[in-house]
Amino acid sequence: MPVIFIETPRLVIRQWEEKDYESYINLNADPDVMEYFPSVKTPGETLAQVKRITEYIDQHGYGFWAVERKDNHQFIGFTGICEPGFQTHFTPCIEIGWRLSKENWGQGFATEAALASLDFGFEKLKLKKIYSFTSIHNHRSENVMQRIGMDKAGEFDHPLIADGHWLKKHVVYKIASNK
Fold this sequence. Notes:
- This protein is 29% helix and 28% strand.
- By secondary structure, the chain is α+β, with helices and mostly antiparallel strands.
């Protein structure tokens, strides 16, 4: 049985399982899902990412968890909170992020999972602030940030994206604990 961190009315947010890998490989190979990333990921890159994610969760007790639908037990992507692996004016910090398969877009799953992740961060971890960021072109993710109550905190040049690349400029949002 996987370790379940959060349950919502429609989702199970849990540790990754080997049965998730093929679906996540397909998700990371989808040009529409990866439109606002420098490239799609190879199977090897995706599996290496899953290894890093699961090790982070094992070490910290939180991270980018696997998201599964309750109605059909389908792995649909990830959500969660972790420390970004780069330096900029708002790091170190804890970020919230998500990535869902295209067939699960537009159904409120990202918002539902993100709200549960925020609650986990503020209630269980007693975090004071949580950040999120994306390319200035990624209006779908920016809309999720707004729906979960985050406020735009500015823009920045992502240090891991090459100068001159169309994805270099990012927006950053933040939300503070109300306690």
